[in-house]
Automatic annotation (TrEMBL):
<dbReference type="InterPro" id="IPR036129">
    <property type="entry name" value="Glycerate_kinase_sf"/>
</dbReference>
<dbReference type="InterPro" id="IPR018197">
    <property type="entry name" value="Glycerate_kinase_RE-like"/>
</dbReference>
<keyword id="KW-0808">Transferase</keyword>
<dbReference type="GO" id="GO:0008887">
    <property type="term" value="F:glycerate kinase activity"/>
</dbReference>
<dbReference type="InterPro" id="IPR018193">
    <property type="entry name" value="Glyc_kinase_flavodox-like_fold"/>
</dbReference>
<protein>
    <submittedName>
        <fullName>Glycerate kinase glxK</fullName>
        <ecNumber>2.7.1.31</ecNumber>
    </submittedName>
</protein>
<dbReference type="Pfam" id="PF02595">
    <property type="entry name" value="Gly_kinase"/>
</dbReference>
<keyword id="KW-0418">Kinase</keyword>
<comment type="similarity">
    <text>Belongs to the glycerate kinase type-1 family.</text>
</comment>
<dbReference type="InterPro" id="IPR004381">
    <property type="entry name" value="Glycerate_kinase"/>
</dbReference>
<dbReference type="GO" id="GO:0031388">
    <property type="term" value="P:organic acid phosphorylation"/>
</dbReference>
Length: 384
């Protein structure tokens, strides 16, 4: 968390007014930190004496580790197995005995080369390797962000990296990815890292899909990862088979289908518990304390739409601020919510960049400068 100063150049004391800037990323354009910096710049240009605190947020997907680093966690890096089996360098974060591990850093869709998708064979193994690194560093609580995966392997890769043995009928390890699970004959968890039994693992997740079926990991998210209709059917059948051997009780749990089934493996084999991603991150980032003395919160993300209503980062930020009686403004690239829906979220007013630049391509490319202009409007509209 960064406090960006107070004491206006005009000599007026505005120390009683403070703004908290807590946005998520603008996907494909700006990181959450960059959004916060641009909004801060616009606010301070409009009101030089304004005290502004930047606290970028995330909901468990891309940007979760970056948000932890901005809040004061120490960054770590590790060379781990990427989704295609090639090594990648992944970041994670540590403060005291609490680690933040982001699946997208090791097994994310964004790690695939342009035009390359591997829906049947992509592995989550590197994410398990990151979890092991956190254990090696002494973590006893791991906040595990499980968004943005390239995989639909049911978390099999995670478990093998942590010591599980997944064997075919000949006693050999099964192949990588969801397709490999079709040949699975036995699951042996006796080699799982014993430190897991004394470590709290909290899944930070913003989806409620079960593992299998028409709303499961393969059916809903498989096409985004490159699976055609036959691939979806193969993956769903493989996940049904996987659950029959690992334990079907939690396959229907909300969030079991997160990250191609990594949610299920964490619940069924690692003793994890699931919480809405933004709630977890706000706790970890110290958001409640950051609200002390704040007159306005500015949040936002690339698109405020129907998904926002179901627990995305701006919804969680607005709910926490509203509970403290603090007004909320939101910045976004695109606005697809009605005034009534914004009001229910606790957002007094939203500021889409498309109002300033109607061309989506230009808006995306110039998002930083547009955010500064929007922030100047916020300063005027809220009489800061």
């Amino acid at each position: 968390m960064t406090d960006l100063g107070h004491g206006g150049r005009d000599g007026r004391d505005r120390s009683g007014t403070r703004v908290l800037v807590a946005p998520d990323k603008f996907k494909g354009s700006l990181t959450a930190l960059q959004v916060a910096e641009r909004v801060t710049a616009g606010l301070r240009r409009a009101r030089p004496g304004l005290r502004v605190t930047a606290l970028p947020v995330a909901d468990g997907g891309d940007g979760t580790v970056a948000a932890a680093l901005a809040a004061g966690f120490t960054g770590r890096t590790a060379r781990v197995t990427g989704p295609l089996g090639e090594p990648v360098t992944a970041r994670w974060a540590l403060r005291g005995d609490t680690a933040v591990v982001e699946l997208a850093e090791a097994s994310g869709l964004r790690l695939l080369p342009p035009g390359v998708l591997a829906p049947l064979t992509a592995t989550s193994r590197g994410t398990g390797e990151l979890l092991r690194r956190a254990l090696d560093a002494g973590a006893r609580k791991i906040v595990f962000g499980v968004g943005g995966s390239a995989t639909t392997d049911g978390g099999a890769g995670v478990l093998t990296a942590l010591g599980a043995r997944l064997l075919n009928g000949s006693g050999a390890p099964v192949g990588p990815g969801g397709a490999g699970l079709a040949a699975l004959a036995s699951v042996d968890l006796r080699g799982l890292d014993p430190r897991l039994s004394t470590t709290e693992i909290v899944l930070a997740c913003d989806v409620s899909n079960p593992l299998t079926g028409p709303t499961g990991a393969a059916a809903v998210y498989g096409p985004q990862k490159g699976a055609d209709a036959d691939g979806v059917a193969l993956l769903d059948a493989a996940l049904v088979h996987w659950a029959s051997l690992l334990g079907p009780a939690l396959a229907g749990a909300p969030g079991a289908g997160a990250a191609g089934g990594v949610g299920y493996a964490a619940l069924a084999a690692l003793g994890a518990r699931m919480r809405p991603g933004i709630e977890v991150l706000l706790d970890v980032l110290g958001f409640a304390a950051a609200l002390d003395g704040v007159a306005l919160v500015v949040t936002g993300e690339g698109s405020l739409d129907r998904q926002t209503l179901h627990g995305k980062a701006p919804a969680g930020v607005a709910a926490a601020a509203r509970a403290r009686g603090i007004e909320v403004a939101a910045v976004c690239g695109r606005l697809a919510l009605t005034p009534g829906e914004l009001e229910r979220l606790g957002i007094r007013r939203a500021y889409p960049l498309l109002e300033l630049e109607p061309d989506p391509a230009h808006s995306l490319a110039g998002a930083g400068a547009l955010l500064e202009r929007v922030a100047e409007r916020i300063a005027a509209d809220f009489a800061l």
